[in-house]
Design goal:
The protein is mainly α. It is built from 6 helices and no strands.
């Protein structure tokens, strides 16, 4: 029971403290805004000053937003420009690859038309990558005849690369 009385008296004291604090705040507000230093004109000027500050901040934010939008537009234009360039580059690379493949296909047909010994002699002096690409595209029967006429070490190197698969090298 004493505990309950203590809690009630503490609650009452707390409420009294809050009321006193509120009265102090109201008194100070009245004193500040109605005292000798702060007349109605001062309050109006203070409000106008705050409004001006808010307008200036709003204007600064508006300018910053415009700047950001201009940057955004510039970035989007550059992305579009570079995307078009990339597309053109990809198209050019594709045409180059296609032209190279057509030339290689023609070259393979030339080697297939040669007697196997002549083709073997010429392919043997090529760099290994070119020799492998040609042999890979030749018809099996023709490639076998050409390899049969080649030096065994060159055949072994070409065979190693052919067995690795396209684009993979040891």
């Amino acid at each position: 029971m004493t505990e309950r009385v203590n809690q009630e008296s503490m609650g009452c004291a707390f409420q009294t403290g809050i009321i006193a604090l509120l009265l102090l705040i109201v008194t100070m507000s009245c004193f500040l805004f109605s005292g000798p230093g702060y007349g109605q004109d001062d309050v109006v000027r203070l409000v106008e000053k705050k409004q001006k500050e808010l307008r200036e901040k709003e204007e600064a934010l508006k300018k910053e937003e415009e700047r950001i939008n201009a940057l955004k537009k510039d970035v989007e234009e550059k992305i579009e420009k570079y995307t078009k360039l990339l597309t053109q580059l990809e198209s050019t690379v594709k045409k180059i690859d296609q032209s190279r493949d057509e030339k290689l296909t023609h070259l393979v047909k030339v080697y297939e038309a040669m007697p196997p010994e002549d083709a073997a002699a010429r392919i043997s002096v090529l760099d290994e990558n070119t020799a492998v690409r040609i042999m890979r595209m030749m018809k099996s029967k023709k490639a076998g005849a050409v390899m049969a006429a080649m030096e065994p070490r060159k055949v072994a190197a070409i065979t190693r690369e052919l067995s690795a698969g396209p684009g993979i090298s040891h």
